[in-house]
Amino acid sequence: MKSTNVTAAKKYAKAMFEVLTDAKELENGYADLIELRKIFAANPKLIDILDDIRVSDDQKNHC
């Protein structure tokens, strides 16, 4: 992962942690992240599709 992506990921992770903590949904949020991790592990090319600018947003929503 590029350093700019790591920096952005850290910012989003911190914001997500704060929102989930404030909403008292930290455990549910963690469970959701575990499920996402499973999905990406089972479908390694999914990130390439989601990252590809040639694939329209509508197509990405139907993956």
Automatic annotation (TrEMBL):
Listed Gene3D superfamilies: N-terminal domain of the delta subunit of the F1F0-ATP synthase (1.10.520.20)
Localization per record: Membrane
Pfam families, per database record: OSCP (PF00213)
GO molecular function: proton-transporting ATP synthase activity, rotational mechanism
Major site of localization recorded for this protein: membrane
Record's keyword terms, sorted: ATP synthesis, Hydrogen ion transport, Ion transport, Membrane, Transport
Protein name: ATP synthase delta chain
Source organism of this protein record: Lentilactobacillus farraginis DSM 18382 = JCM 14108
Organism lineage string: Bacteria, Bacillati, Bacillota, Bacilli, Lactobacillales
